[in-house]
Amino acid sequence: MPDHLNAATLLDLARRAEARAPGPCACTKTPLDGWQSQPLSLDETRFREIGTLMPEDDPEPTFAEYLPGKVNYWSTEAPIAPRYFPYNRCGVWECSSCGRLYLRYTEGGGYFVDRRIRALRWTLIEDVSL
Fold it and tell me: Per the structure, how many domains does the chain have?
């Protein structure tokens, strides 16, 4: 199982990754600044999981979302709050081509499963309590 990453560690990793890879990425043609269904064109062999935001001692993390103001789940400016849904169910993945970090989780509904992905931007990380 991947190592659990707290908000401080996540922030540090995200800052370093963005400093190494400031320009656009060729990993995908689909912008991933906000949550997206994982593009079929994404080459998964380029990615390796470096950690998880899943709480170590909580088998069923909250479904509460942290969306202040008028921002919504799909917004590119939605905060990344590791203790809240969907971040508390995410793996943190690194692209071996560009070094960028991405958050990934699987959204499950009654009749579907949707693998979702979002680029990790350090400026959006907020360590807020439940």
Answer: 1
DSSP the chain: -PPB--HHHHHHHHHHHHHH--S--SS-SS--SS-EEPPTT--GGGEEEEEE-S-TT-SS----B---TT--TT-TT--B-TTSBTGGG-EEEEETTT--EEEEEEEE-SS-EEEEEEE--GGGB-----
3-42 pLDDT, tens digit each: 999 999 999 999 999 898 766 677 788 889 999 999 998 8
Q: Is residue 47 part of a domain?
A: yes
Structure confidence at residue 59 (pLDDT): 77
